[in-house]
Amino acid sequence: MAASLNQVVGGEGDDRRAQLVAAAFRRVAEAGFEGLRLRQVAEDVGIDHSTLHHHFATKQDLVEAVAAHTTRQFWGTSPQAPDPASALRAHLATLRQMIVEQPGLFVVTVELDLRARRDPAVAAAMERHESGWRERLVEILTGLVPDPAASAELVIAAVKGVRLLPDVAGRVLHQLGEHLIGDGRG
Amino acid sequence: MAASLNQVVGGEGDDRRAQLVAAAFRRVAEAGFEGLRLRQVAEDVGIDHSTLHHHFATKQDLVEAVAAHTTRQFWGTSPQAPDPASALRAHLATLRQMIVEQPGLFVVTVELDLRARRDPAVAAAMERHESGWRERLVEILTGLVPDPAASAELVIAAVKGVRLLPDVAGRVLHQLGEHLIGDGRG
Amino acid sequence: MAASLNQVVGGEGDDRRAQLVAAAFRRVAEAGFEGLRLRQVAEDVGIDHSTLHHHFATKQDLVEAVAAHTTRQFWGTSPQAPDPASALRAHLATLRQMIVEQPGLFVVTVELDLRARRDPAVAAAMERHESGWRERLVEILTGLVPDPAASAELVIAAVKGVRLLPDVAGRVLHQLGEHLIGDGRG
Amino acid sequence: MAASLNQVVGGEGDDRRAQLVAAAFRRVAEAGFEGLRLRQVAEDVGIDHSTLHHHFATKQDLVEAVAAHTTRQFWGTSPQAPDPASALRAHLATLRQMIVEQPGLFVVTVELDLRARRDPAVAAAMERHESGWRERLVEILTGLVPDPAASAELVIAAVKGVRLLPDVAGRVLHQLGEHLIGDGRG
DNA sequence: CATGAATGAGGGTTCATTCAT
DNA sequence: GATGAATGAACCCTCATTCAT
């Protein structure tokens, strides 16, 4: 009774693992993996730092959970669009909005891209994430541009290039979209 | 004369600094700032780790020197081109070649972009570097595209987005270039 | 009857204790008290490490149980011999056989001897064990050697000295036995 | 000047490594390898615990130094004797005296014997030590007993068996000596 | 300019133990 | 009796930095 009430009311005890991952994510967004300290993560959640090891045996485990948690935040909702052009516009608009509203998410993504170079587990997570994104883009771009695969790569590159710059993301992605859409007309 | 004299007489000290910066640069390229260890840098150069502090009082000083050394490697040679289109093509070709041939340079650049978020000195260096690049791009794009400033931003974004991917850099940058050049005609 | 009933009804708990002691004994034989981990012991038995504390409130309790379990393995069977000489030979042969066949038992004994220096409970257990052994030896040696007490001490020392060396145990104990038996004759 | 004076007067700065090994040795004698703590060792010497790592990169290095330091304390002086019998008596008397006067030395030896089972470096040190001892014993026993090799093994066993018992060491070793010497007469 | 000893803060990790369920 | 979350002390080790030589 008390337990179920606790779950319903507070929900705080929901999942310590999730809390820890969220806290770690926040720390990485602020200080990078370079500045990720297990003691701080535990403190953020309000538990002893040794208790963290009860949920994540090693720091690496937590890092991998952060990678999964980060990539999971993409493509939660897939908006349906009547035509390829508006689908692309919607896609880019969503990304621009995410870049503006959740800058930390993209900071962590860059951190993960960098870490992937020395961390096979993270590399696998990022490749899975990126290939999903690529497929989605190719799907959208098919029928809109002559070479969907190449254009998808261009879109990915442009987004990656403005990930850390909310101020220019809108302009750049809009321009890119119009370029691609206009291209189909030519 | 003065330069060569400088190298002969007291230049060894400066040489050491350059050696240390180069070694640190290499370490960052391999292991990130997260994996940068002063002891290793000193050992790479063949001096005691205490001696390193005679050349760089603090680790931060070395990091800033790495930032300067990194940005300095761009735009060493500015190829002259008869017309804007070939100037842009040359610019992108140069970048593609650098990405392929000096991947470490771009890894460090991403590391610096990330570190710039928490390190004002690095931030200043990167902004200086990037505004120089932007100006150069605007110069090239003027007369070629309707909105040189916006297109420069797009180019920068695309390059940043493929910095870590030598395999797709060529395709993406080529496609972008043709887009921009073709756009001017329409 | 009572015994079998005990096993059926409430004996499982006692079984668990025995299992835990046996597992702890094995761990000490392999890794020493230095490497004794309650979690591993519990895991070896197939229970949660918290549950172990229901059977042994503290690690010290388990250690003392291991000491008791270890000393209990000696002198289970007392072979009857027609004369003192063959009694001594049988005693030494039994020990040699145990050293060869159950090396772990003697490793733990050495561990216990060492721990006894800082652990009064273990010290008491070992003293009890050793005085029983000594009495038995004096009994055997009486009528065989001039100073049974001193010779018993010599036998104990020699056995302790080859406890960890199954390869030389046979030779050494045999030689010692013949020395003692021959001595009586002279 | 000050430095040489310091060396002459206090001698304390003589060798930090030696001081640390001595302190570690003392700790092992008291608390076993199980209770060896680098922080305490450093504190005993009066330096920060991190400084200890400047002299011994890892705990294992210190342990190996302790093993070397321990075995080095044996056979420092080799007393010359006119005949084998008195040579054996002198050898055993020396050992008995060491056991009585330096009990810690033998406690550490037992600890090392035990650790040798899981530590190849320590095992090598102990084997070297023991084979040296064995050779010396064989040399002494040759001409005194029929089977010097076997008797050497018996002596080693007996000594090992009384290492931890200063009270009985004298009696046991004396009896053993007379046994061996008397044996030659028969 | 170079060295090696020393520092101290802090890192991840381990482990026996406790407690609510 | 059994579990899993939590604790806190302690562990070995790392690293940038300082200082006397």
List keywords for this structure.
homotetramer; 0% strand; Tetracycline Repressor, domain 2; DNA-binding; mainly alpha; 186 residues; 10 helices; 2 domains; Arc Repressor Mutant, subunit A; elongated
Give an overview in words.
The structure is a homotetramer of 186-residue chains. By secondary structure, chain A is mainly alpha-helical. Chain A has two domains: 2-66, Arc Repressor Mutant, subunit A (Orthogonal Bundle); 73-185, Tetracycline Repressor, domain 2. Chain A is 76% helix and 0% strand. Chain A contains ten helices and no strands. Chain A has helices at 2-9, 16-31, 38-45, 49-55, 59-72, 84-101, 103-115, 120-141, 148-162, 166-185. In chain A, α2 (16-31) crosses α3 and α9 (148-162) packs antiparallel against α10. Chain A is elongated. The model of chain A is unreliable at 1-13 (pLDDT under 50). The interface between A and B is large, with 36 and 37 residues. Chain C binds a DNA duplex (21 and 21 nucleotides) through residues 12-13, 16, 37-39, 47-51, 53-55, 57-59.
